[in-house]
Amino acid sequence: LCQGHTVYVVSDGFEGLAKGQIREVGWHDVAGWLGRGGSMLGTKRTLPKTCMEKIVENVRKFNIQGLLVIGGFEAYEGVLQLVEARGQYEELCIIMCVIPATISNNVPGTDFSLGSDTAVNAAMESCDRIKQSASGTKRRVFIVETMGGYCGPWVDIGGTRVQTRGAEGCRMAASVLEFILQANVEHLTDKMKTDIQRGLVLRNEKCHEHYTTEFLYNLYSSEGKGIFDCRINVLGHLQQGGAPTPFDRNYGTKLGVKAVLWMSEKLQEVYRKGRVFANSGDSACVIGLRKKVVAFSPVTELKKVTDFEHRLPQEQWWLNLRLMLKMLANYQISLTEYISGTMEHVTRRTL
Predict the structure, then answer these.
(1) pLDDT band at 158 (very low <50, low <70, confident <90, very high)
(2) Residue 110 buriedness (CB in 10 A; 0-12 / 13-18 / 19+)
(3) Are residue 109 and residue 254 in the same domain, yes or no?
(4) What is the pLDDT of residue 165?
(5) Most confident listed range (39-43, 184-188, 196-200, 282-286)
(6) Same domain, 32 and 105
(7) Is the pTM of this model over 0.90?
(8) Which domain holds residue 137?
(9) How far apart are CA 325 and CA 293, in angstroms?
(10) What's the whole-number mean pLDDT along residues 268-276?
(11) Is residue 268 assigned to a domain?
């Protein structure tokens, strides 16, 4: 508003854009949103390709010159579909930016999605309460299922946080294989013979087609018969948390400001003869934190490193946490197995 733009909000995602659920907003309309959890605008998983013509019609009707999309994998994939449809619809040659916001943390182009810190804190608090329950009943193993689709970073990250707070025996099972499970059962059996007579197994909801939570419960119950018993806990939507954490509030503000400034700059660059015409690849980007820099990544380039079948990036940085989880769970492993880090050249920009 300070830079002279007219701001509209669209309810219910791309479906709302197709139905014309668009209204102009001012300062007072968004007051108090920062500390509230959830989405005030509503979310839908509808992709633009199912209603492309209606979306184009409303873009033309409201004279939309820039689109800021906040959401998860559907937001990224939706913007990618809009970019690919520019050849058919000239109205889609506008500036587009995606702010990744999902607890699954599965949007390529960023290491952390907005809301993921709140989600892992909610999972950690739940596991702490489960640990407290286990401390009253000896020789008990809890199997906890987390949300996140095919992308399960919170099994690794949440497991690391929980263990540093004293929950012994937490085991990452995002890649469930027979020998891993066998080693895990043997490790828990040995642990029950010590002073630490409790265990915690974290499992992502779609980590394997056949190794379900019920299967793991039956396996651990059978193998631990006479030594320990098992209980199942499915976190479900409790993991989405309540009020955002300070990190997410700060991160959301930072991404919002940087995204709008970037869009304003791009709009000035592509403004020609009284209209906006943007058809280059860098006019539609995903903003995100990559290592220690907030960067913009064109969606056309991110398409090459995306697994659309499983809805996640082809490479995930959090997979390197697995060996550290073994260390925290007191597995007998060699430190030489741990992946060594690489030194980065320090420049004035990185400082």
Answers:
(1) low
(2) buried
(3) yes
(4) 42
(5) 282-286
(6) yes
(7) no
(8) 119-241
(9) 27
(10) 88
(11) yes
Residue 298 lies in a domain: yes
CATH code at 218? 3.40.50.460
Q: Same domain, yes or no, for 93 and 138?
A: no
pLDDT digits (tens, 9 = 90+) for 215-250: 888 988 888 888 888 889 888 777 777 789 999 999
For residue 107, what are the contacts with CB-CB under 8 A and spacing of at least 6?
Answer: 72, 73, 75, 76, 98, 100, 113, 286, 288, 313
The sign of the dihedral angle between the CA atoms of 242, 246, 250, 251 is negative
Assess if residue 320 is contained within a domain.
Answer: no
* Helix ranges (DSSP H) in the chain: 13-19, 52-61, 73-84, 116-136, 153-164, 178-192, 213-223, 246-270, 299-302, 322-328
Domain endpoint, select from 193, 223, 241: 241
Strands 198-204 and 170-172: parallel
96 backbone dihedrals φ, ψ, rounded to 5°: -130, 140
Give the residue ranges of DSSP H helices in 178-276: 178-192, 213-223, 246-270
- Sign of the Cα pseudo-torsion (165, 291, 264, 63, in order): negative
Q: Which residues of 119-144 are buried (b: 16+ CB within 10 A; e: fewer)?
A: bbbbbbebbeebbeebeeeebbbbbb
CA torsion sign for 152, 153, 156, 161 is negative
DSSP 341: P
Distance, CA of 71 to CA of 114 (rounded, Å): 9
167: Cα separation from own chain's centroid:
24
